[in-house]
Amino acid sequence: MHELAVTQSVLAVALEAAAKAGARRITAINLVIGEIGGFIDDSVQFYFDILSRGTPAEGAILRFDRRPATATCRDCGSSYPVTLPLPATCTVCGGAHLVIAGGREMRIDSIEVDDENTG
Amino acid sequence: MRIPVERQILSANDQVAAENREAFARAGVFVLNLMASPGAGKTSVILSTAAALPTGCRPGVIEGDLASRIDADAVAARGIPVVQINTGGTCHLDAPMVKGALAELPLRELDLLFIENVGNLVCTAEFDLGADLGVVVASTPEGHDKPYKYPGMFAKADAVLLNKADLMSVFQFDLAYFRRGLEMVNPNAPLFAVSCWTGLGIEAWVAWLMGRLKS
Predict the structure, then answer these.
(1) What is the number of domains present in chain A?
(2) Are B126 and A9 an interchain contact pair (Cβ–Cβ within 8 Å)?
(3) Does the structural domain B23-213 have CATH classification 3.40.50.300?
(4) Of B1, B152, B187, which has the smallest distance from its Cβ to A37's Cβ?
(5) CB distance from B76 to chain A under 8 Å?
(6) pTM higher than 0.80, yes or no?
(7) Structural domain boundaries of chain B?
(8) For every residue of B34-87, which 3-state class applies, written as one string?
(9) Are A13 and A58 part of one and the same domain?
(10) Using 50, 70 and 90 to split pLDDT, how confident is the model at A118?
């Protein structure tokens, strides 16, 4: 449900970056999103298509670079990517002492703009 | 052509959250952001905590709900300064909403401000409000698997309250399993099993909170 607010922020940041660069049209936005953030790519693109109408970002494609969380087992030392719901025990040794880190990224890496219209 | 941006998506919210944090520091008020599912007992935790505060510690409350003044009225009935934010459908509070509400509170006359976020275990974790502590309220009827399903929320918590702890056996709540899930994503957050109904655990929670407030 927070996809709407997140999408509004994505659009605002992208438009600002494009204006600063003197670009007239944004063709793509590259996002880095952690798996634990609990947000849905299709939903963000859906909101984006509506919110961006009439702006230089209209028609832009959102690309999601999904970053998994990493589980590290304190019993056997294994380390591997995990998604939701998180495992309660180590998938390698069955131990009950996992530590989960990462997977919380939520940033705009870059935008791609139309070369011909770049001032 | 590719233009690097390298910015947090919610950087605009984070900026206003930083302004809120400064305003709280200037007014000398310590601020809690309470996050939970609907019905976990956020309002009950606020009322139980407020009732157990040492003399001289003056509470205030910002209530966030999609609609209604039900929670604000319950708080006001106890003589606690309160302002209600109705988000009108938005599933979380954000820093600008809190900033807008501050003018309606006598901040300088408060020592402890509770911000009760909208009931939601997903969205509220992402929006910094400028609070000193994020407190997650879980409850036994919700089940012991919540840290595994909503790790983002539990990872952000500075403290976790497990409310309705008096009903643990009724709901066959596995406290060890819950604790393990919490420690997996957040080894540092203390867990307080409480019951706002019986008063169980409230004293320990308030003692910890007062320690944080003074430090």
Answers:
(1) 2
(2) no
(3) yes
(4) B152
(5) no
(6) yes
(7) 23-213
(8) EEECCCCCHHHHHHHHHHCCCCCCCEEEEEEECCCCHHHHHHHCCCCCEEEEEC
(9) yes
(10) very low
